[in-house]
Amino acid sequence: MVVDERAGTTIDRRSFLRKSTAVGSGVFAAALIGSLSPGLLRIEGNASGLSPDGHGAHDGHGGHGGHDDKPHGHGFSGSKLERLNLSPLSLDGVQTRLGILSDAHICDYDLTALGKLTAAWETLAWAAPGISAHFLLGDVTLNGTESEMDLFATQTAETLMACYATVPTTHLLMGNHDWLGCGQTQFESYFAGHDRAQYFASKQDTVELVGGATIIKLNGSGVDCAERDMMDYTVAYDFLAAALEETTAHRPDDAILVMAHEPPMNRGLLGEYECGYYGQGTSLDMVELMTRYPQLRLFSGHIHNPLDMPETINTDLGFTSVYTSTVGSCLFVRGELVGKQDTDSQGLVLDIMEDGRLVLHRLIFNSREYLGQPVEL
């Protein structure tokens, strides 16, 4: 339960998230949005095309194809971020670098979330040179409306265009909040038809090959989202089974990353309202299916956890599961609101190393700093 400071009443987590993206939008949103031109923290272009560590800019992987097997620099030489002592991550030994965010909760009556997401894109561009692709794991919007999707797509495209010589593709997954206003076909069609469509990949239930990783984008049915915010992933059981089998047969050395919005039930960590339905204990048990692949890592959002929680990375279900916090909304721990709703913003950078290791970097975007030391998955 959450105390709503505006009304002085106690409301549940689901109602709180639907009412707004954050409690105090005024000062923070004004400070962020007022400085966008179009980027929040302008990174000036460098004619040499070199990033701070001397790597060259990426030549060709915008849109849905053309990814190289090696990461490249972002093509910028200076930023206000330098004065915040946020040193760019090294590219030494990195084969593929991914930015992983979730729960943007963009809405058109409170621009707090949009400001936080914009700051996150720009922080990633500086802190993590050579990103091959971004993944936003659901709840792109608060209500699933076209106006919210347009606000997200337009501002994201403008920001990334200002930050990159060649814009990495942003892969979008649906979350329970997106399902509130549109179905899968509408979601996919909207971003595919946007005037900046080349920067987004919105098709659900797909397999993406990025460098040394096979990335499975897993969507579920949103039929129960209006009542319980619970997505049913068993509709994609056959897709997941086939994708895992084919990947191990044809790309056996790849890291396998499954991306979804809602995690499966883990009774040691989550309540029922915080998980999706993965058919555990039935003939469509997707958790049991994933335990057959020790190289699999599941990334999921939805629970808005602070990244300093030890449970953020766990193996309790028989495979490694990573929760991705929230970039645009507010932080919760087991259903209780924590932190500062109007400023908290967190996310991940995943490095797939040439030697096969997976190294995770945790970022706090509002304070623009790394959280702890890198973690090997």
Tell me what you see in this structure.
There is one protein chain. The chain has helices spanning 13-19, 26-33, 112-127, 146-163, 176-179, 184-192, 225-228, 237-250, 286-291; strands spanning 2-4, 9-11, 43-45, 76-79, 94-101, 131-137, 169-173, 200-201, 206-210, 213-217, 221-224, 230-232, 255-260, 296-300, 313-314, 320-323, 331-333, 336-338, 346-353, 358-364, 369-370, 375-376. The model is unreliable at 1-11 and 21-79 (pLDDT under 50). Helix 2 packs across helix 3 (112-127) and helix 3 runs parallel beside helix 4 (146-163). The radius of gyration is 19 Å and the shape is globular. The chain is 23% helix and 25% strand. By secondary structure, the chain is α/β, with parallel strands linked by helices. The strands form six sheets. Strands 5, 6, 7, 8, 19, 20, 21 and 22 form an eight-stranded mixed β-sheet that branches. It has one domain: Purple Acid Phosphatase, chain A, domain 2.
Could you list some keywords that capture this structure?
377 residues; alpha/beta; Purple Acid Phosphatase, chain A, domain 2; 6-stranded mixed sheet; 22 strands; 23% helix; disordered N terminus
